[in-house]
Design goal:
The protein is of the alpha+beta class and 85 residues long. It has a single domain, classed as HPr-like (Histidine-containing Protein, Chain: A), CATH 3.30.1340.10. It has three helices and four strands, in the order E-H-E-E-H-E-H. The chain has a four-stranded antiparallel β-sheet. Strand 2 and strand 3 form a beta hairpin. The longest helix is centred in the C-terminal third of the chain and has 13 residues.
């Protein structure tokens, strides 16, 4: 399953939100990829996620497979669209 999400987190997908994303992925039985433009990242790899260079306003296509695919998609959406404290 996949979903397109517009990144509205004011930080984009930089250090803190990327770290939160990778940490969240550990709790799901799912393989998740995030695509921004022509770049693709394994959501469980901090270096891969940071290399996307995703900023506020970018559209991310999130692809999830596995038993927890829907829950993983929901978690990614929350991180990409919620302002970090």
């Amino acid at each position: 399953m996949d979903k397109e999400i517009i990144i509205t987190n004011p930080q984009g997908l930089h250090a803190r939100p990327a770290s939160a994303l990778v940490e969240q992925m550990k709790s799901f039985d799912a393989t998740v990829r995030v695509e921004v433009g022509a770049k693709s990242a394994n959501a469980a790899s901090i270096m891969s996620v940071l290399a996307l260079g995703a900023t506020t306003g970018d559209t991310a296509r999130v692809i999830a497979e596995g038993a927890d695919a829907q829950a993983a998609l929901d978690a990614v959406e929350m991180i990409l669209t919620t302002e970090d404290d």
